[in-house]
Structures are given as C-alpha cells and as structure tokens.
Amino acid sequence: MNNNAIIASNVPAQSEGLLVQNGVPTIISSGPAPMPAVNAMSGTEKLHTISILVENTAGVLARVAHVFARRGFNLESLAVSRTEDHTVSRMTLVVAGDDEAFRQIGNQLLKLIDVIKVIDHTRDELVGRELALIKVRAADAAVRAEIAQIAQIFRCNIVDMSEDTLMIEVTGKSDKVDSIQRNLERYEILELVRTGLIVLNRGVKQT
Questions:
Q1: Per-residue pLDDT tens digits for 46-66
Q2: Which of 3.40.50.150, 3.40.50.300, 1.10.10.10, 3.30.70.260 is the CATH number of 20-124?
Q3: Which fold has domain 128-201?
Q4: Which residues contact 25 (CB under 8 A, 6 or more apart)?
C-alpha cells in the first residue's frame, strides 16, 4: 500500500468566491452586525485562529507548517486530529503575525494538494477549549492542601499523585489555563504540557 496515495475526501472542496479576510477564504458569522473578533493582541501582532481541513495523508502537517515557516509566522499553538470523516483531519492553529504579511497565506495553503478548506475565524462566534496537564512539586501536606484548593477553585481535576508531586488536569479557555499556571508558579511547576486551542462554531454553522 502506498502511504503517500491521496485519499478521496467526503468533504466538498472550498468553493471559489468566498469572502476573504486577511487573505484567507473565510466563513463569516451570520447576523445583522459583524461579530467581535475572537483574536487577541500579543504585543503588536494579531492572533489569527484558523481551521484547516486536510486529507488524512502522510506528511501533510509538515507541508502546512512549512508554508507558515517560509512566511515567517510564529505558530502560537497547533492541534491536529481526525474529524467525523476518517479521511479528513482538522488543524486548528493560532498564528501570530501582522495583517500585511498574512494576506498571501490563504492562497498558498490552498495550492497544497492535501488542503481542502482554510477558514479564518477572526469574526466567527466560537466555542474554544484547551487542555493542559501541570505537574507541581508537593512534598508536604500543607502544600498539597493549598494546591488542591486552587484546583477546586478552577474546577480542575487532580489526576495523579506521588509522594512528592501532584498532577492537575485543566480544561477551558486559554486564559483559564494561563491563570491557573500563574497561581501554581508560587510552587515549583516541574512539567507542563498544553494541547493548544481547539474550536468549533456555535450552532449549525460548519467550522
């Protein structure tokens, strides 16, 4: 079996003539007035939240990442998984960069044979979540109690415990993950891993 063979997708290709935002073919939220941007500012650079539907083939992640690297974009986060269609994967990227440099990225991505759709969620109404695991040093009972209280306040789960550590699972918006991380920094964070942001549009609108 040829692992590089193109898998036929059940998702229709992106139609021409869609409204373009920042150079990326975009689905805009419905409603009489534009939705406020979901992107934030990081220094002088805007954060763009992008969904890319791709054929589930070997090497596609490297090819997509190369497009961003070649244009000098900083990927703030990247999450990849299969969709409800086993032939298609969804990449959710948070990309930092100015609008001028961002204008050509959509067309460049769509030139890749594996790319089906590119959607800039700048003005979409989204549900977004991120998962993080945080391992904290907790060698005595008083520290354990304090960390457990922080986890309870943030509605997190303690998923592992050893003689010297606690591991906390936190799920929510990125600012929630940032906040609990700041609160745990007074203790010793031994390890931390974050999945990156994943998003879906609210309602019946396809992401």
A1: 788 889 999 999 899 999 988
A2: 3.30.70.260
A3: Alpha-Beta Plaits (3.30.70)
A4: 14, 18, 19, 106, 110, 117, 118, 119, 120
